[in-house]
Specification:
The complex is a heterodimer of chains A (146) and B (175). By secondary structure, chain A is an alpha/beta fold. Chain A has 5 helices and 5 strands. Chain A is globular and about 40 Å long. Chain B is an alpha/beta fold. Chain B is built from 5 helices and 6 strands. In chain B, helix 1 crosses helix 5 and helix 2 runs parallel beside helix 3. In chain B, 42% of the residues are buried. Classes of the chains: A alpha/beta (146), B alpha/beta (175). At the A-B interface, helix 4, strand 5 and helix 5 of A face helix 4, strand 6 and helix 5 of B.
């Protein structure tokens, strides 16, 4: 079963997402990471994640844009310009949904852009929709890191 | 649809409530067009459907050239990997190289036994890849999920037409 990675720096948002994932019964393993640098280290299996070398990459990354150290946009650009990581689907979740922001994010290679909901009820609905499409309907690439 | 010579022709189907723009659908089996059209017709937010069973026609629908300034930009492209004429991967490459279309969401489809198309599709810039079940009921459910996600859940980046923003206040030059 493929892992869902959530890159989100805000501890409150992480807890809400975790509760929403639990509420809609997503059975896939979920890994929470707190910034873009940690995400890149996790995907490249380096640093604290070196012990994961040779294991399959996550099935889906849910990426916040505003994060410290390395923000979501930098991380997205790095993932999509790395031949070993490029095929990992990345869904950007942000409350900043101006047309320019959305267009730029797709231009950077995001597989999809979803609006971060303002209520827990809507967050559960969003997680259910992401699960239904990305984890139950879409064919995910079977990729291992180099 | 196939003509008397067996060649595929582009089909255009008007769906009520077309504010969401155009959807280009390229299929390799007639049954896919029927089941996809049914799934789209059942939605109130369905866009205008432009369908074709040929890769060359699909390119023409997506990249009509500088003479087609009044053509609204497609908001979504659902494309079969194994199209006659020009295959889905080639079309995807052309879309990603086009300055006006490069951000358009593209869903690549194939048969459920065709697992080998998944990795190349993502590497070429597909937004997602869906392997279609052979069972007709499951395939219809699959189309419903594709449409639900891309027309409702995901924020679409294609707000601009070849005339500019909806309403046509701004004109984008096309080389």
């Amino acid at each position: 079963m493929r892992t869902l990675v959530v890159a989100e720096d805000d501890p409150d948002d992480r807890h809400l997402i975790q509760d929403a994932i639990r509420a809609c019964g997503i059975a896939h393993p979920v890994v929470f990471l707190s910034d873009g640098e940690e995400l890149i280290a996790y995907l490249r299996r380096t640093g604290a994640y070196a012990s994961l070398a040779g294991t399959s990459l996550p099935g889906l990354v849910l990426l916040d844009l505003n994060m410290p150290r390395k923000d979501g946009r930098e991380a997205l650009t790095e993932i999509k310009s790395d031949a070993g990581l490029r095929s990992v689907p990345v869904v950007v979740m942000s409350s900043a949904c101006s047309p320019d922001q959305v267009a730029t994010t797709y231009g950077d290679g995001a597989n999809s852009f979803v609006e971060k909901p303002g209520t827990f009820e809507h967050l559960v609905a969003l997680m259910r929709s992401l699960d239904r499409y990305w984890l139950q309907t879409v064919a995910l690439p079977s990729i291992r890191p180099d | 649809m196939a003509n008397a010579n067996g060649a595929f022709m582009a089909t255009s189907v008007s769906i009520p409530g077309t504010e969401r723009g155009r959807l280009v659908f390229a299929y390799s089996r007639e049954g896919d067009l029927r089941s996809f059209s049914r799934a789209l017709s059942s939605r109130r937010d369905g866009p205008h459907l432009h369908a074709t069973g040929n890769g060359l026609d699909c390119l023409q629908l997506l990249l009509p050239g500088a003479g087609a300034l009044s053509t609204p930009m497609p908001w979504l492209c659902v494309i079969d990997f194994h199209l006659p004429g020009v295959d889905g991967l080639h079309i995807l490459g052309r879309v990603r190289a086009d300055p006006l279309l490069q951000r358009m969401p593209v869903v690549v489809t194939a048969r459920e036994s065709d697992r080998g198309v998944v990795e190349p599709s993502y590497m070429a810039g597909a937004n997602s890849c869906v392997l279609l079940p052979e069972d007709p009921a499951l395939r219809s459910e699959c189309w419903a999920r594709v449409l639900e996600y891309w027309l409702t859940t995901s924020v679409n980046p294609m707000g601009r037409s070849r005339h500019g923003m909806p309403g046509g206040a701004e004109c984008i030059e096309v080389a």
